Amino acid sequence: MKSNKGGSENKGGTLSSVQFFNALNKYIPALVLQQWIEKYKQENEINANNKALAITEVAKEQLPYIQEMETVCLFADISGFTNVSEACANLGIRGNEELAFVINRYMEGMAKNLAKYGGDIIKFVGDAMIVMWPRSKNDPD
Known about the structure:
Layout: H1 17-24, H2 30-42, H3 51-62, E1 71-77, H4 81-90, H5 93-116, E2 120-125, E3 128-134
Antiparallel strand pairs: 1-3, 2-3
Helix pairs in contact: 2-3, 4-5
């Protein structure tokens, strides 16, 4: 009998749609996944036996496309990062390791707090990140 550790698979070893999207959410911005889900729901003739494959096929057929929306964007950059990184580099390996540790903690904290308030990290750019808060359909004008 096959073990199902962590509940990540259904019978037959296939991922459910929810599990598939949760796995993708680690690598793809939520805005993109939401668009895929909407397109997936609109497709009536999708093969019900392989939903994960079907959603990737829907996405492939529709790319690239423009998604118009009202949003708030944030570009968060660490001020003086070049000077700090040069100073750390002068300390050798220890300085580089400390810089990497601090940057990782900073990015981790930012990601958790941004997600807590509905932000979606669209891109990391060196020591900076681009974040979006799209207007909800339920938001009043």
